[in-house]
Design brief:
single chain; five-stranded parallel beta sheet; transferase; 9 strands; ornithine carbamoyltransferase activity; alpha/beta; globular; Asp/Orn_carbamoylTrfase_sf; EC 2.1.3.3; 14% strand
């Protein structure tokens, strides 16, 4: 494993090792204060960001490394110069490339022409750093991830795909509850089902909230993905039955709530649930983005995979 582009590159043991390293980075930050000393990481952002940019920038600093931020002021990657030339230049200077891009094809081309690790920090199809942070957060409350039942509710998107991938690798039960017409990508779903067939995981897509009764964790996301200009109010009627609220928790018996944020309070999730520290793991989940990303960078840059 030279790069992290989809999450499918990792084995079950590698995912577990990343989660355990993330936990250790969180518990013992001083132990890793010089882990990336003398290393420079380029962070590329074609899309706006709060959590991804801040967690990578501060996380790299906490390990003694240097983050170089590149935005899209010079145009999308591949417009001013080819992706091949872009990657070939960066790899002469940088020790790692982290990219938040519009298209997964850009990441594939960056990796093809890079001789340093490339990490997908979000694209149109996958969000592997988020998915790994999510399961690290779950692992802080559930000892055996293979027995966890996780329900994603809302629009099937890149986050859904990554939850499916990590859950399938770990052997967990993951169900996406989506309105008709908003299901995850069928091709990615087929690939995940193949992984699940080997691991013993259960992967399902449904449009009925009744199918997640007895689950452990429910997961929400914004109803309109970044880059989609559709007003939230325009999809309110379609998605409101999938809102995460107290009634959903009471009806299903679900004990914990995740949300990758940004959250639109009183739409995809109520403030009552989001701010309830007895059930909401949302802000610890956001913190864990930094710890798992540090684990990913450290592992790939050391060549431990």
């Amino acid at each position: 494993m030279e790069h992290l582009l989809t999450g499918k590159e990792a084995s079950k043991q590698q995912v577990i090792d990343l989660i355990n390293l993330g936990k250790d980075l969180k518990a013992n930050p001083k132990k890793y204060a010089d882990a990336l000393k003398g290393k420079s990481i380029v962070t590329i952002f074609e899309k706006q960001s709060l959590r991804t940019r801040v967690t990578f920038d501060i996380g790299i600093h906490k390990m003694g490394g240097h983050a170089v931020y590149l935005d899209s002021q010079n145009g999308a990657i591949g417009e001013r110069e080819t992706v091949k030339d872009f990657a070939s230049n960066l790899t002469r200077w940088a020790d790692c490339i982290v990219a938040r891009v519009m298209s997964h094809k850009t990441l594939e081309e960056l990796a093809e022409y890079s001789n340093v690790p490339v990490i997908n920090s979000l694209c149109d199809l996958y969000h592997p750093c988020q998915g790994l942070a999510d399961f690290m957060t779950i692992a802080e409350h559930y000892d055996d991830l293979s027995k966890v039942k996780l329900a994603y509710v809302g629009d099937g998107n890149n986050v859904t795909h990554s939850l499916f991938i990590v859950g399938a690798i770990l052997g967990a039960e993951v169900t996406a509850v989506c309105p008709i017409g908003s299901s995850p990508d069928a091709q990615i779903l087929k690939q995940v089902e193949d992984i699940a067939a080997e691991s013993g995981a259960t992967i399902r897509v449904t449009n009925s909230m009744d199918d997640i009764k007895g689950y452990d964790v429910v997961y929400g996301d914004t109803w309109v993905s970044m880059g989609d200009d559709t007003p939230l109010q325009a999809v309110k009627d379609k998605f409101m039955p999938y809102q995460i609220n107290r009634a959903l928790l009471d009806n299903t018996g679900i004990k914990h709530v995740l949300h990758c944020q940004p959250a639109h309070r009183e739409l995809d999730i109520t403030s009552e649930v989001m701010d309830d520290e007895n059930v909401s793991l949302i802000f610890p989940q956001a913190e864990n983005r930094m710890h798992i990303q540090n684990a990913i960078m450290l592992t790939l840059m050391k060549g431990d995979f």
